[in-house]
Amino acid sequence: MPISRRGFLGRAAGASVAGVAVAAGLGSLLAETPATRSSCLLVDPGPDCPLRESATGYEAALSSSNVVFQRTTLQSLTPARAIILPAAGVTDEKSQAILREHLENGSVILYESAASFLGPEEFGFHKRFIRSVFGLSLLDPVRLWDSADSRKQSPYVDYHWPIVTKVRDFSRMVPVDPGDGETIAWFGDLPVAARRRIGKGTLVYLGSPLGPHFLSADREASHWLRAFCAAS
Question: What pTM does this model have?
Answer without folding.
Answer: 0.79
